[in-house]
Amino acid sequence: xxxxxxxxxxxxxxxxxxxxxxxxxxxxxxxxxxxxxxxxxxxxxxxxxxxxxxxxxxxxxxxxxxxxxxxxxxxxxxxxxxxxxxxxxxxxxxxxxxxxxxxxxxxxxxxxxxxxxxxxxxxxxxxxxxxxxxxxxxxxxxxxxxxxxxxxxxxxxxxxxxxxxxxxxxxxxxxxxxxxxxxxxxxxxxxxxxxxxxxxxxxxxxxxxxxxxxxxxxxxxxxxxxxxxxxxxxxxxxxxxxxxxxxxxxxxxxxxxxxxxxxxxxxxxxxxxxxxxxxxxxxxxxxxxxxxxxxxxxxxxxxxxxxxxxxxxxxxxxxxxxxxxxxxxxxxxxxxxxxxxxxxxxxxxxxxxxxxxxxxxxxxxxxxxxxxxxxxxxxxxxxxxxxxxxxxxxxxx
Length: 397
Known about the structure:
With about 400 residues, the protein is of the alpha/beta class. Strand 2, helix 2 and strand 3 form a beta-alpha-beta unit.
């Protein structure tokens, strides 16, 4: 029996920009929701201008905005704000990530909207939350990574580095997404929606759970160790004869003995007091890494991976982004699709949530700015003449 997508029939209106809110609402769109994206007439979501890497479109925008309808509206004009209010009146979910206080000034904050529309689920995504000394502080992803301590535990001993992906934005997006799903479940039993609040700092601080608890309860901050592990050895990336890099992880002393015998070709190291236990190997990390590196440097990447897998040692190639785009596992599981866009079809991954027995995720087109303005205004009862007048005045685009 085939099931519909779980969010079929749900309408989402989003006043959103950059990554956190757009990535959250894209998850909803993939699961079947209708997502109406409110953009500024003068350029739209500023993520549209981040780069031109996706055949002329911005890579962030392509990633976060497929499957949405774009309406370009000037919220500073009372006529534009009224259009948004009409759209919200018929919506199930409203999401916004404007600068702190901006939504409230427009009457689009969660508290105001939910008081007017009791069944509405209204999501406020902010950098640091609505109260407190940081409430009005600018909150870009890298800044929040620093405030949440992620940068302090990422990088080498000499150099802290930010994550190579917008981790704070993604964390907030996924908690907003799951918050909407939870609120929809609650509404199904109570009939009432309500506000959902998510902050980037609190989201990323939750993801910092392991180092945070380690530091709070252990009395010291986890060391930065690059791709190595702070308390397990060997657990690092090693260069192979063909210039590749292979990461391996030895989780217990039995695995070390197998590694020494079947991969390093030095079975005597299995019982050597310098290496026999993880405590000893970690204390002698330089010696441990040296013997592993010497052995793997004689093997090409394919042979190294083969020997490690045969010995039952966890391992991985240190892939580039290009390698991931051609990853054999993603290909074997048929995870790639094409998504339409203003520049033609673009390759994109299926979302990770798979619901067997139902239709595939709805990976709709990436919208052009204001692509759906006329259709949405017409659905609200606007005449062609009225739309033309708003367009002449710059209220819509």
